[in-house]
Design goal:
The chain has 155 residues and is α+β, with helices and mostly antiparallel strands. It has 6 helices and 4 strands; from the N terminus they run ααααβαβββα. The protein has helices spanning 5-8, 14-30, 49-58, 67-79, 94-107, 139-154, and strands at residues 83-88, 113-118, 125-130, 133-138. A 4-stranded mixed β-sheet has the order 2-1-3-4. Strand 3 and strand 4 form a beta hairpin.
Length: 155
């Protein structure tokens, strides 16, 4: 499997992961007994043009007889991706997601995807949880830390 399939398919979040799993399930179920794949027929279904283009790029060096097994392999790989839970205080832009997932894949694990939650209670910054390791870089946590330091300084 290509190490960059997440970038080829533009998968950053668990929502995008689930969307791709559903689309792959549809293709695989439709083509269980079909020897010939025709991806263009899916342009009339639930696929967007970008998804079809991404899938074509992913399959570009694959022979027609190997497409089914390649898609099964992709689906299995998608199911087992490591998930980084992240909470932020605002609705992220696509550019923000690209930057954050780039950092996560560089510093945590190259195959990571994000489960993103929004909580205005953290005011700003972020909370990160991955495999039992928790990092609180929220603004509310920083304010609490400063408040505690000032209280101790008065004693």
């Amino acid at each position: 499997m290509r190490t960059n399939f997440l970038e080829v398919l533009r998968i950053r979040t668990t929502g995008e992961q689930q969307e791709w799993i559903s689309l792959l399930d549809e293709i695989l179920n439709d083509n269980k007994s079909e020897p010939d794949f025709n991806l263009e027929s899916y342009s009339q279904k639930n696929f967007t043009f970008i998804q079809l283009e991404c899938l074509e790029n992913y399959l570009k060096d694959t022979t027609k007889k190997d497409i089914y097994s390649k898609l099964m392999e992709l689906r299995d790989e998608l199911i087992t991706l490591p998930v980084v839970n992240m909470t932020i205080a605002f609705e992220p832009t696509s550019n923000f997601l690209d930057r954050i997932i780039g950092i996560i894949r560089k510093k945590v694990t190259p195959q990571a995807i994000m489960h993103l939650s929004i909580s205005r209670q953290i005011i700003g910054g972020f909370l990160l949880d991955f495999q039992g390791r928790f990092y609180d870089a929220s603004l509310v946590n920083m304010i609490h830390a400063l408040t505690k330091e000032k209280n101790y300084a008065r004693l």
